[in-house]
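Budget justification note: compute hours in this period were largely spent on complex prediction jobs such as the one shown. Inputs:
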Amino acid sequence: MTSMTSPGAKENFALAAETAAVSRGYWTTVWTRLVRDPVSVGCALVLLLMVLIAVFAPWLAPYDPSQGTMLKRLSPIGTEGHWLGTDELGRDMLSRLMHGGQMSLLMGLMPVFIAFLVGTSLGLIAGFFGGWINSLIMRTTDVFFAFPAVLLAIAISGALGAGFVNAIISLTLVFIPPIARVAESVTTSVRNLDFVEAARASGAGNFTIIRVHVLGNVLGPVFIYATSLVSVCMILAAGLSFLGLGVRPPVPEWGLMLNTLRQSIYIQPWISVLPGLMIFITSLCFNLLSDGLRSAMDIKR
Amino acid sequence: MFVFIIRRFLYAIPIALAVAAVCFSLVHLAPGDPLTAIIPADAPAEVVIAIQQAYGMDRPLIVQFGSWIQRALQGDLGVSVATGRPVMGDIALALSNTLLLAFAAALLGFFGGILLGGLAAIYNGTWIDKLATALAITGVSIPHYWLGLLLVIIFSVQLDWLPSMGAGPGGSSDWRLDWAHLRHLVLPAVTMCFIPMGIVTRTVRATVSEILNSEFVTALYARGLRGRRIALHVAKNAAPTVLSVMGLQFGYLLGGSILVETVFSWPGTGYLLNTAIFQRDIPLLQGIILVLAMFFVGLNLLVDVLQTLMDPRIKRG
Amino acid sequence: MSALLRVQDLKKYFPVGKDLLGRPTQVVQAVDGVSFSVEKGRTLGIVGESGCGKSTTARLLMHLIEPDEGRISIRGKEFGRIGGRHPVAELRRQMQMVFQDSYASLNPRLTIEDSIAFGPQIHGVSEREARQQARDLLDKVGLNPNIFIRRYPHELSGGQRQRVNIARALAIKPEIVILDEAVSALDKSVQAQVLNLLADLKKEFGLTYLFISHDLNVVQYISDDVMVMYLGQVVESGPVEQLYQNPSHPYTRALLSSVPSQTPHQRKQHKVLEGDPPNPIAPPSGCRFHPRCELARPICAARQPDNVRVSGAHQAACFALPDSSGYSEYIQLQEVCA
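Corresponding output:
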């Protein structure tokens, strides 16, 4: 204690006695809370495993995913040498599911990631500056909100034509408006807090205020929201491929595999279920993880 | 409040126009000439120009947009490039089928969602709550086209109980209220009800448990009110939120049915849209998207107005 | 002695409501012609009911809200965004502000050190130096830097956070500090500690305070001069002893009589201030206090009273004051007619 006579000395003392001198930042606290939640940890592990398998599929997969023999087409699950059977062209299902993760995960994550960057920037600008800039940006997003997400994705994809890049573009466009809207409302509420006023009163310019005081408080809530969109994006992306608007054959992708195997449900029904099951598990894990993150970040002051 | 409603109506007009502009510009997103589908690759230049003139595609874009809007307002959405028939007739028929499916799915989903969500809120923390929460998260995580396939495999392929394709026996696309037609409706409607059910369950659970924990409900109990009387108060307070979520979900059902309609070959707008995309039939594509988007704009408007009327706290000036 | 801070005819009207085309339908006259001056080293207390424009005045002074009209000058230098005036950035180096909500005015994602060191860095102080300053200032506001420097706002009590906010305001080395309800949210015992700290800091750094509060006892304790505001206007101002002993405006009298006296036998029958302050969207005509005033006469609704000197620097705006010609003239006129 530097000055035991100063009026705050007692408060200092009580606080020093009650907590150790180590103080934890916000994100450290969130992390500790997250790793204590078994569901979140479980989902994170499953997703990590999926990503690892997808990345290392060329070395892990027992067969070439694009080579098959018509002799062995549509072998049932449990066939020797082909644990998960073969598809309509006799290609090994296990290998194709492992490789398929590459495209499916990429198409689920990339649009949300790009939309997160673009949408957050737009929302930040709209929310921070307000006025006509806000009107311009937010009224434009209103127009995109007038379309149901699925319809918009399919319409843009349909107009652009099938293909990986076009699918990514259309999905990104679908997710920018909702993210921008969330970022805008969070920014507006942060902008009106006293510490932003205080920062402005200390003479800081707009850019510095955004960088130091606004961004850190906006990113968290917008990030949670974006994670909840990953699951939707996975389903939509696979859905585009399922309609033939995503990646083109023979690239292995879960949605596309579901589409081609659909013709064989009368011969080998359970094989056609497998790619969808993968989409379901991934999307479920992303949803649960997002929920876990949300409650971990919900720290009362 | 009145001013708010009028302003909301006026605001819907520029939105609707902008939506139409987006639909119109979809054509120009597309690579290549929208007429490639009907112009032979080796056609001489003067033939190409003649066809372009016939479809009015030689005029400036803004003029094309203006006349497109004008005709659309009169119910004329152009002629299908693939079939040569007016687009409007096909869309109207498809829309009636889609609406039927969406209503059926909404009925199932909303009823199930309110029931599950209400039970989960009342029995907060018990196994009923956990089951409802699990069902809700499954509902929003499941790829519904895959669920449809799964149901087809179980109920059509394995058990042979229900038909898997079309809206009626023998590929009929006219709806009639009889057992044969109802059988066709079961699987697609059940498939599609899962998403709204999950979302309505979540909303009802959150809203109702918040209301049940609020002080005014405690006060009602303290005044000696029980069971049904309390339920009435809770329902009145939860209604605005739940209704607006349901309204939006109904809109998503209309727009989101394309995948499910494809799985079940249901002759609705989604199925028609799919056809339009693969035949690169731009007038049909534009028309379907315009009609569905306008439905959605109207629905949003309706939800906002209803919510304003129902919730005395919203006095947006 | 010449004034350090001089404010002349400050005005701010806020548009409210929207018609069909989104145009504002009405205006709130939040601050309507406020003038005052503060001498160096003194504390000006600003009191009034909530909604009277106290806080808006503070924000206008800092240019956090752009004033519609008025002049703000420090040492004769006029500041503002209008051409020819000195830039707002310079104003903000000489004047700082402490807000009411101690939690909302600290960025929850920054440590105490970062929050205090932020301001000086904006003004070109090196990071190292700013951090050293932050440690020194924490010590000055009675918080042990070794314990608090790396903490986050949510780990501190309300009183501790307000000390941090004071340190943050002082970090820029201002001459004038605006304290906008800075102790209002604190417990009484903590309030007293912070008030003492403010008095100590004022002496040490030679500060000038604008102390905004609705708490008349606190204002009496800390202020040298007091200014009473009602619906965006100043109704009475003067040195603290004179104003508290001889409140001259009926509004000030009503306000002061609503404060419970510290000594029970001195409590008198209260003149209770009835009703809420009128809506600032449609302020009453003439003297804005007349609908609630027991001395109101027809002239009060017809004209706005001018400032009348009570004694020395003590002045009030009321027709009923002894040497206020309008009121007595009017009474006489009525008597003549009758």
